[in-house]
Fold this sequence. Notes:
The chain has 173 residues and is α/β, with parallel strands linked by helices.
Amino acid sequence: MPSTLQRPIVLIGPMGAGKTSVGKRVAKALGRPFVDTDKLLVSRHGAIAALFETHGEPHFRELERAAVAETLASDDVAVVSLGGGAVLDESTRALLADAHVVLLTVTPEAVGPRISGSDRPLLHHDGLAAWQAIAEARAPIYASLADLTLDTSHRPLSHVVDDIVTWAGTEPA
Length: 173
């Protein structure tokens, strides 16, 4: 049954926190569409790693900002998962002002198996150490944007989803 959600729910957080998995389930529970901006970018522009390598991170962030703006401007209010670094762009952060922003966090111990063997361009050289440095550097930005923060390290995803659905239903429009 579709919800009466008036604003999109946007999931932010570090790589491997479960934004896509949780987002899909929240959207299903609310009867709303789900958009993963990373997947949208890949479908339009090719692999993220190749975009980074060929055009650099600034170009990727421009494409990402456009994808976020397009998604949030949609008439059909949705659940949106952002790439971990999307919030680095000030203009992208401004786009989140009218959304319900949910920060998903995860501990280094829990994220290790989730990111092992991934092709994430920012983790190519130092793996988990790079993840931890990136997550710590971005943490203040994530925290400043979040309306709700939930840790996905050891909780069943169904509980995280239930918390978001319940919270979104009680938030003012």
